[in-house]
Fold these 2 entries.
Entry 1:
Amino acid sequence: MTLQKADDSLSAAPAAAPRRRRRVARTRTLLKHAVLVAAGLVMLYPLLWMIASSIKPDALIFREPSLLPTKTDFSHYSDGWNALSYPFGVYLANSAMVVLGALLGNLVSCSMAAYAFARLKFRGKAFFFGMMMVTLMVPIYVLIIPQYVMYSKVGWVNTFLPLIVPKFLATDAFFIFLMVQFFRGLPTELDEAAKIDGAGYWRIYFRILLPVSVPALATTAIFTFIWTWNDFLSQLIYLTRPELQTAPVALRNYVDATSGASWGSLFAMSVVTLIPVFIVFLVGQRYLVKGIATTGMK
């Protein structure tokens, strides 16, 4: 009888071990997800607070820290839309124009420069690529004054040209580097097969490499959209006329025009300004993840 009990206990011990490991694994997973959810809520709290404040009466915005307002006031959206010299749609249209120009310029010029660095052979390629990478370490504040003087002399101040034309000259080294890494990961047999069929450099670029570079191009497009749409300093410097100002610059005018009295309108128009960024990121999220994972940035 004693021997039978001992045998039963020995056979039950191995069976209990996997159950304990599964319980420990589930506990760790729950704790990990709980920590991630808590961290996510902490990061999202400012955004949620801004959205809640956009529908609160002005008197309760700073007195009532709760995310669930006791009173709602949706008039901030209509008042904020018409609070400045022009309807807020004018500033959104200006931002869209600048973003579309910068988007097209980066996609064309950076992809062409990346194709040259990644697939072509020419004298001094390593040197020029290194010089291009060095520009990543140059602060933008070092370039603001000489660029402004140059654009002022050619009459480009108070136009969209200083914000769009440089993008067609492959000035964003980060995107060139990103696409160079992607092009280097493509098999060179594609180029060789195209050359055997009589394709030249331009045809290889347009017909072979660009169609398979959608993840890298989408990543460049998404980052360009977000960074240009949210850019404040450059647009503040070059666009001083009210009818040319973009959405980030216009948001600053709510505080100046009302001496800080209409915070609700400011938060409401901030929410409106964030909607395009959210939509672009939501639509292009899978391309963004795939592009970063396949360009050596991981």
Entry 2:
Amino acid sequence: MALEFTMRLASYNLQKCVGVDMRRHPARSMIVIRALRADIVVLQEADKRLPPRPAALPRDLIETKGFSAIDFGQPKGSLGWHGNAMLVRPSITVTKTYRLELPGLEPRGAICADLSTPMGPLRVVGVHLGLIRRYRLMQLTAIAHNLERLPKMPTVLAGDFNEWGPKHALDAVTPAYDFLDTAHSFPAPRPVAALDGFALSRDLRARAHGVLKRIPAPVASDHLPIWLDLAPQVAPAA
């Protein structure tokens, strides 16, 4: 029997590389990212807050650690768009990128990348949704409608969904995707909420998923990073 190929995705809210000790320490954030052993890493709060929003995680540090940051046409000096960014290993090729404007009181956007991977074509959407549930649902609805207009492809939604309770409400507005029951990731020193998560299209499945709790993750950000071992959905036997 052939071995099944899996890929690891991760999502991490960097909090601009400022830890719970209030120190800005990009090298520490990169230690956490490398410890995930992921092929694709979706980041939130990857840029500093004030214009021109320079990268909180320097590009040269990223590149020396075996990743590259996908270009989403961000402003000069910024790593991401609306604070969202995506890192990939050399085995991943970017075929197309999209920026999705999202509704709400505060400026929000999502990033989307079509990738060629050793597992096959894969679309990854990076999100950081709003603090108010009504706007979170509007934002997810907008993402789902935008994805419906694109060519069909195995898809993962990943990021900080800011949803404190069970993700049933999020499932309801994204019927083509299933949210995983991810473990608590916030606040990092003593997690009580699963704000960070993944949702998969029906042609994908999770072999395993979890939260990285190893030092220095509990102090490097107010969020712990989450990871997912992804595999194609097994077709039912004829």
